[in-house]
Design brief:
There is one protein chain. The protein is an alpha+beta fold and about 500 residues long. The protein folds into three domains: about 90 residues, Beta Barrel (OB fold (Dihydrolipoamide Acetyltransferase, E2P)), CATH 2.40.50; about 120 residues, OB fold (Dihydrolipoamide Acetyltransferase, E2P); about 220 residues, Chloramphenicol Acetyltransferase (2-Layer Sandwich). The protein has 15 helices and 27 strands. The strands form seven sheets. Strands 17, 20, 23, 24, 25, 26 and 27 form a seven-stranded mixed beta sheet that branches. Strand 18 and strand 19 form a beta hairpin. Helix 5 packs parallel to helix 6.
């Protein structure tokens, strides 16, 4: 019996793709959902998993060919051909009695979240031969947004690690094997192939670029050495070439900034070199992309926090007793921003090509510092929430952010962001936009300062506010109006209750 491998749905308005890379060749054994090939459209890269286990038969669409939706890519022979791969490991386990070998349970990459296709194995907590309990943490994966812990799917002995620390794995990759029978003897031979994974990881840079990328580089005369690949293992994709072609002047000086200044041998011996985490690399890239893409401008104002502080002091005990959560200042700022965004909707909008997309809702991003880096969990429909609901959501998401437990979905879809640098003592700063958002509010330290009130000098708790905005969509008048409305709402919180 044979199973057809066909082109999956490519997405709205996408009718064809190019076969970029085949990971298997005819005659290779394949497991169900194992990646067979990679397709490339003008928008995304699509991986094609095996629909069934067996042996890869004929490859109908070779690398470089253009195929339509549902086109036949290859065939998989099931049945007898599929039995051979399953039986192959048997000699390795022959050293142990069949009754002790137990059942081999694969440790797979868990769900990484929407739009996340790969991760890096950052830490293994167990070594080959270690006994593990079900749900005990085996290793930790790191994506460009969150850290993901991988629990043991069954109790037994860790027999094999197929993805060592530092290896990049896709969303359906196998990380290791657990012998659920608990036979340590069988685990040792099974671990032998593990070193073979190292050359594969090390050789990841020596990969074939996407055919469409090679063609475009040849047409435009672009040196592949000057193109940063974003595909699997650094493979150059079509969109990478387009980026390099659009801004060659910007790309060329980049290598000049990389070399370090000369370092003496004595200083070098006292240095410590640590590889950037994927999260930190992504933070750096997104912040720089924001500066390169948006016309970022910042406007400032200051707010007298007297009324907010008095209101909080008066009701915080009753608030916590009734709602089970502390009354902080973030709910005041969130409410004030939601109020101001209704009057100045362009601050809550985004640019999509030549269109402006106005959001008739507020998904508020609350920037949170974690040991791994800055993350921005999103509170959805914050404009419809009460003070207590906002405080509860901020507390809950903040804790899970620090623990690295946030899911991908919880950090996507924000329409506006608030960043509180004041918790670290910042007096003034210019926050950077969180693309594709058009506005971000920076909060700062509350500091007693002398202010002139009705002709008299009084000491007031003051905070500087900063609104960074995308000048392509938000004019100065709108930005200043937004910040003034936030200031008015905070200096007289009763305005929020009366929608003024």
């Amino acid at each position: 019996m044979s199973t057809e491998v066909r082109v999956p749905t490519l997405g709205e308005s996408v009718t064809e793709a190019t076969v970029a890379t085949w990971f298997k060749k005819p005659g290779d054994a394949v497991a169900v959902d194992e990646m067979l090939c990679e397709l490339e459209t003008d928008k995304v890269t699509v991986e094609v998993p095996a629909p069934a286990a067996g042996t890869l038969g004929e490859i109908v669409a070779a690398e470089g060919e253009t195929v339509g939706v549902d086109a036949l890519l290859a065939t998989i022979s099931e049945g007898a051909g599929a039995a051979a791969p399953a039986a192959a490991p048997a000699p390795a386990a022959a050293a142990a009695p069949a009754s002790d070998a137990g059942e081999a349970v694969d440790v797979m990459v868990p769900t990484l979240g929407e739009s996340v296709s790969e991760a890096t194995v950052s830490t293994w907590f167990k070594a080959v031969g270690d006994t593990v309990a079900q749900d005990e943490m085996l290793c930790e994966l790191e994506t460009d947004k969150v850290s993901v812990e991988v629990p043991a799917p069954a109790a037994g002995v860790l027999a094999e690690i197929t993805a060592p620390e530092g290896a990049t794995v896709d969303a359906s990759a196998k990380l290791g094997v657990i012998s659920s029978g608990g036979a340590v003897v069988a685990a040792a031979p099974a671990a032998a192939p593990a070193p073979a994974a190292a050359p594969a990881a090390a050789g990841g840079k020596d990969v074939e670029n996407a055919p469409s990328a090679n063609k475009l580089m040849a047409e435009k005369g672009i040196d592949p050495a000057n193109v940063q690949g974003s595909g699997r293992d650094g493979r150059i994709m079509k969109e990478d070439v387009l980026k390099a072609a659009i801004a060659p002047a910007a790309a060329a000086p980049a290598p000049a900034a990389a070399p370090r200044a000369p370092v003496s041998a004595d200083d070098a011996a006292r240095e410590e070199r640590v590889k950037m985490t994927r999260l930190r690399q992504t933070i750096a890239k997104r912040l720089k992309d924001a500066q390169n893409t948006a016309a970022i401008l910042t406007t400032y104002n200051e707010v007298d926090m007297t009324e907010c502080m008095n209101l909080r002091k008066q009701y915080k005990d009753q608030f916590e007793k009734k709602h089970g959560v502390r009354l902080g200042f973030m709910s005041f700022f969130t409410k004030a921003c939601c109020h101001a965004l209704k009057e100045v909707p362009e601050v809550n909008a985004e640019i999509d090509g030549t269109d402006i997309v106005y959001k008739n809702f507020v998904h508020m991003g609350i920037a949170a510092g974690t040991p791994q880096g800055l993350v921005v969990p999103v509170i959805r429909d914050a404009d419809k929430m009460s003070f207590a609901e906002i405080e509860g959501a901020i507390a809950e998401k903040g804790k899970r952010a620090r623990d690295g437990k946030l899911s991908m979905a919880e950090m996507q879809g924000g329409t506006f962001t608030i960043s509180n640098g004041g918790v670290y003592g910042s007096l003034m700063s210019s926050p950077i936009l969180n693309p594709p958002q058009s506005g971000i509010l920076g909060m700062h330290k509350i500091q007693d300062r002398p202010m002139v009130i009705n002709g008299e000098i009084k000491i007031r708790p003051m905070m500087y506010l900063a609104l960074s905005y995308d000048h392509r969509i938000v004019d100065g008048k709108g930005a200043v109006t937004f910040l003034v409305r936030v200031k008015e709402a905070l200096e007289d919180p009763r305005r929020l209750l009366m929608d003024l």
